[in-house]
Amino acid sequence: MSAITRDEVAHLARLSRLALHEDELDQLAAQLDEIISAVAKVQEVAQGDIPPTSHALPLTNVYRPDETHQGLTPDQALAGAPAVEDQRFRVPQILGEEE
Amino acid sequence: MVGAVTNGPATSGVGPAPVAFDDAMRSYEPVLGLETHVELGTASKMFCSCATAFGAAPNTQVCPVCLALPGSLPVVNGAAVESAIRLGLALNCSVASWCRFARKNYFYPDMPKNYQISQYDEPLCSDGYLDVTVDTPEGPREFRVEIERVHMEEDTGKTAHMGGATGRIHGAEYSIVDYNRAGIPLLEIVTKPIEHTGELAPQVARAYVAELRDLVRSLGISDVRMEQGSLRCDVNVSLMPRGGTEWGTRSETKNVNSLRSVERAVRSEIERQAGVLNSGGRVVQETRHFQENTGTSVPGRSKEEAQDYRYFPDPDLVPVAPSAEWVEELRATLPELPAAKRARIKAEWSLSDEELRDLVNADAIELVAATVEAGAPPADARKWWLNELSRRATETEVELADLPITPEQVARVVALVAEGALTNKLARQVVDGVLNGEGDPDTVVEARGLKVVSDDSALGAAVDEAIAGDPDAAEKVRNGKVAAAGALVGAVMRATRGQADAGRARALILERLGVQ
């Protein structure tokens, strides 16, 4: 059974605001399915007796003091922006007309 | 909490006419839920060391972490965790002994990472309550609002939508983003469904947000300025038929950013949903946006389901596991909470229910208490904040607490009046000066030359001049027409530019003219 369906890829594409062609949906569904199946192999060794982990190190409570440090200048911050206006990142239209 | 009535057409934007509130209340029982975001007052951001100052030039408080540049890693601000635990304790919550941050994935340019770091199924604090009081014609009534959770997350950047006619996202050609706010620590406080409020629902919602704001302020963890967005509220409302048990479909109204708006948003949403239901339609689960100018809401973009956020534990951050000792240490730092303070003040100042209510409604209790602490008698402190200063706040359309005068300065003015150095009229001029930014009361008194002319030699000279300048009035007074002394007192007040004590001037005039 495939781990990911074409409909799920279409749904994720919509959430990601990506416009995918029909043939791209088929192609990506197949590729993602392979990737997820490969990763799922971990489940074969990690049975119920091994708790899921979210971090590689057994650490807790790593905190930073509440102190400020100068970060980037606006020029540095905006250096990689495709477009800048009024010292802000300029981004394309967010919602289409249908929303 | 969705028990949808499934028949009838879905109705959202252009719906049936709303039903008048009282009519809606005859048929339906509202169920409320409130999600409140509090921006913490920490010096630095939640996961990086950028400053958090309000109103800084765009993109001047940013770094690789909050801009999500490759290779950067977040580290938790310990002070923010501490604030979250203290708020949880003040809300009678249990504090988790172990919890994690989660990534909330969504694609929207207000977060450069394409996710927001939040908490999902492991909130830091859960299962608390906050008691709130609402005025009713039958007297004050208390409601217990149960708290589902308090969790930590980060604020988003600020977007401005350009090129459209209205400045709104709809119809905009493009948007511009300032990430100064992205990463500022936020606490989200979520209530359990609030039932059985009936027609008091709008007031309960308002009272809850007001009480929460006062609580946060008393803890000193945020300045909670609603107009600056450091306390923001989302209001969930659903209706069920009176006597029913199955909740209706809820809407979520965002952008509710003042106490008055909280009340209006609940009321207008009850009226709107009742209109939809009465016409045989069904309420759509949706996000709506509150419009400050009309007091109503318009539908926003369709809500993504929780599963669409694909929450998962953030692998860049290690778990937060507060020890029981630390939690108890923090519990010991809790100040006297607002409800206890109100009860104490009511007793200490011998206030009636109405007097206390006036103080609470004017949002003046903390200010008056601080003024009393600074040495003013409670009655004088109340009089200044409730009368003169409330009037000034209304005139200039700011919150009372935001007037540029401190409780210490008010106490000093009260003291100057008590000493006889100022009359009430002069005191108001001193307050004018302080509000104008001319400095402390003593500085204003000095700079404006506002001193009661109380030494009898200066006053006596002014009295003699007044008598010499108006022999007719003087003669009348001598002949027993005491009322004529008013003209002479007026002359003395003019000569001293209002700085004489009018009572003292009158007494001197009568004495000089042989009338006792």
UniProtKB/TrEMBL annotation, chain A:
**Catalytic activity field:** L-glutamyl-tRNA(Gln) + L-glutamine + ATP + H2O = L-glutaminyl-tRNA(Gln) + L-glutamate + ADP + phosphate + H(+); L-aspartyl-tRNA(Asn) + L-glutamine + ATP + H2O = L-asparaginyl-tRNA(Asn) + L-glutamate + ADP + phosphate + 2 H(+)
Family according to the record? Belongs to the GatC family.
- InterPro entries the UniProt entry points to: Asp/Glu-ADT_sf_sub_c (IPR036113), GatC (IPR003837)
Q: Which domain of life is it from?
A: Bacteria
Q: What NCBIfam families does the entry give?
A: gatC
Q: What is its EC number?
A: 6.3.5.-
Please name the GO terms that the record assigns under molecular function: ATP binding; glutaminyl-tRNA synthase (glutamine-hydrolyzing) activity
Q: What is one Gene Ontology biological process annotated in the Swiss-Prot or TrEMBL record?
A: regulation of translational fidelity
Assigned keywords, A-Z: ATP-binding, Coiled coil, Ligase, Nucleotide-binding, Protein biosynthesis
Quaternary structure, from the entry: Heterotrimer of A, B and C subunits.
Encoding gene (name): gatC
SUPFAM superfamilies referenced in this protein's UniProt entry, alphabetically: Glu-tRNAGln amidotransferase C subunit (SSF141000)
Biological role: Allows the formation of correctly charged Asn-tRNA(Asn) or Gln-tRNA(Gln) through the transamidation of misacylated Asp-tRNA(Asn) or Glu-tRNA(Gln) in organisms which lack either or both of asparaginyl-tRNA or glutaminyl-tRNA synthetases. The reaction takes place in the presence of glutamine and ATP through an activated phospho-Asp-tRNA(Asn) or phospho-Glu-tRNA(Gln).
Q: Does the keyword Amino-acid biosynthesis apply?
A: no
Give the originating organism. Streptomonospora mangrovi
Coiled-coil region(s): 18-45
What is the protein name given in its UniProt record? Aspartyl/glutamyl-tRNA(Asn/Gln) amidotransferase subunit C
TrEMBL record, chain B:
Q: Name one GO molecular function term.
A: glutaminyl-tRNA synthase (glutamine-hydrolyzing) activity
| Reactions that this protein is recorded to catalyse | L-glutamyl-tRNA(Gln) + L-glutamine + ATP + H2O = L-glutaminyl-tRNA(Gln) + L-glutamate + ADP + phosphate + H(+); L-aspartyl-tRNA(Asn) + L-glutamine + ATP + H2O = L-asparaginyl-tRNA(Asn) + L-glutamate + ADP + phosphate + 2 H(+)
Which Gene Ontology BP annotations are present? glutaminyl-tRNAGln biosynthesis via transamidation; translation
Top-level taxon of origin: Bacteria
EC class, as a word, reads ligase
Chain ranges of the Asn/Gln amidotransferase domain: 366-513
Gene3D superfamilies linked: 1.10.10.410
Entry keywords, A to Z = ATP-binding, Ligase, Nucleotide-binding, Protein biosynthesis
What EC identifiers does the entry list? 6.3.5.-
Relate the protein's function as given in its record: Allows the formation of correctly charged Asn-tRNA(Asn) or Gln-tRNA(Gln) through the transamidation of misacylated Asp-tRNA(Asn) or Glu-tRNA(Gln) in organisms which lack either or both of asparaginyl-tRNA or glutaminyl-tRNA synthetases. The reaction takes place in the presence of glutamine and ATP through an activated phospho-Asp-tRNA(Asn) or phospho-Glu-tRNA(Gln).
Tell me its family.
Belongs to the GatB/GatE family. GatB subfamily.
Quaternary assembly: Heterotrimer of A, B and C subunits.
UniProt-recorded name of the protein: Aspartyl/glutamyl-tRNA(Asn/Gln) amidotransferase subunit B
**Species annotation:** Streptomonospora mangrovi
